[in-house]
Amino acid sequence: MSDLSFDVVVAGGGPVGWACALAAQVALGKRARVAVIERESSRPPSADVLLSARVYTVASGNLRWLVEQGVQFDLARSAAVTDIVVSGRDGQESLRVSANDAGEAELAKVLEHEALTHAIATRAQVLGVQLVSGAVVTRHDLDAQKLIELSDRRMLQARVVIAADGMQSKLRELSDISATVRTYPQRGVVAHLRCEQPHRGAARQWFLPDGSILALLPLPDIDGASAMSMVWSVSEARADELCALLATDLLDAVNAASQRAARVTHMSSAAQHFPLTLVRVADPVAQRLVVVGDAAHAVHPLAGQGVNLGLVDARVLHDVWQQVDKVGGDSGHALLLGRYRRERFRPTLAMQLATDGLFRLYNQVEHPLLMAAGDAGMRLLSRLPAFRRTLSTAAVQ
Predict the structure, then answer these.
(1) What is the CA radius of gyration of the chain?
(2) Is the model's pLDDT at 373 over the cut of 80?
């Protein structure tokens, strides 16, 4: 096998891409050759920055799997989520999901993008995963391999290629995989806020009368004060307005929308916004290629499941590749990829339908009775212990 020939090549080096590479190296063994194509290597979070703006709510099941593979996290830069509290248009609690309902100590941890990516990438490279710097230009099909051409004209051969290159996936497009890409009429406004009142591990979310969705996620203390990460899904015009507000005015807006549940008092980062997009592929598997993460199933952030869906992709690939000896050691064999398709398609579609359905239900501003029905239905279901156990188990994955 040449220096540019691999068992698995992963295009895209975010947390999901590196998790898939880690899964391949662990499952296929030390002799397997695994590579990640990325423009630059991952970097640890800066010691000069208290917390970076982009954070993930990583389910405890995914964290447990990563730790089992030897990934080590800086827990001082993370915060545990023990409860998820959802409030309806009237500000009253509609649903509470607790780790206790699932018999767990916590539902998830909130981690920075840089910290999560760097931790997974470090472990993957220790085990032998190679970082190939560059950008994908095109791909070619060989008899039993894929040929990936990079911008510097290098050619990488792979038995299977994992496309983890994001919502605008170039490999997905090059492989003619049919995808529905829809931009939501909202943008996500994010900022880190310090609070007067401790969050006590509760992630809170409000479906507001104007159709916007406010979420406050636990963060580790900042400057000795309790802190939360804000994700406010609002209209594009409102996003521009919120980002242009003075800090005191934005804090007032958050306190008003949340009925002062967290009593935010200071901003620890400037507000910024990003587009919200739905991506759905007709089939995540093509010949010797698998599309994962946001390239396959970007979702609205209202359930905090984006990165978790991608990490479960990696876990299923890990399980699938453990059967590689049954197909002659071929990591891209159609039987293995077919099993991946069967195990991931329905659960992923169900999560997309659920998040998109919730967004649509609570965005019926012109039909307040529908929104009120959603509130009432959520409160009714939340009274059923079996429903709460089901939700909490799903939350920890």
Answers:
(1) 21
(2) no
397-to-99, 134, 393 alpha-carbon distances in Å = 12, 34, 6
φ, ψ dihedrals at 57, nearest 5°: -95, 100
Contact 84, 199 (CB under 8 A): no
What is the rounded average pLDDT of the residues 249-267? 94
Q: What is the pLDDT of residues 312-329, one digit of tens each?
A: 999 999 999 999 999 999
The answer to whether residues 227 and 192 touch, using CB atoms and an 8 Å cutoff, is yes
Q: What are phi and psi of 203, to 5 degrees?
A: -90, 125
CA 219 vs CA 22, 60, 108, 191: distances in Å: 27, 16, 12, 11
Q: Report the 10 Å Cβ neighbour count for 388.
A: 19
**Residue 245 pLDDT exceeds 90:** yes
DSSP string, 252-309: HHHHHHTTTSS-EEEESS--EEEEEEEEEES-SEETTEEE-THHHH---GGGS-HHHH
Q: In Å, what is the CA distance from 84 to each residue of 79, 98, 205?
A: 14, 6, 8
Helices (H), 193-246: 236-244
Dihedrals phi, psi of 198, to nearest 5 degrees: -60, 140
Instruction: Look up the pTM and report it.
Output: 0.90
Up-side HSE of residue 230: CA atoms within 13 Å toward CB? Answer: 35
**pLDDT of 357 over the 80 cut:** no
Query: Which tokens in the block code for residue 334?
Result: 């159609």
Spatial separation of the C-alpha atoms in residues 189 and 214, rounded to whole Å: 9
Question: Side chain identity at 22, as an amino acid letter?
Answer: L
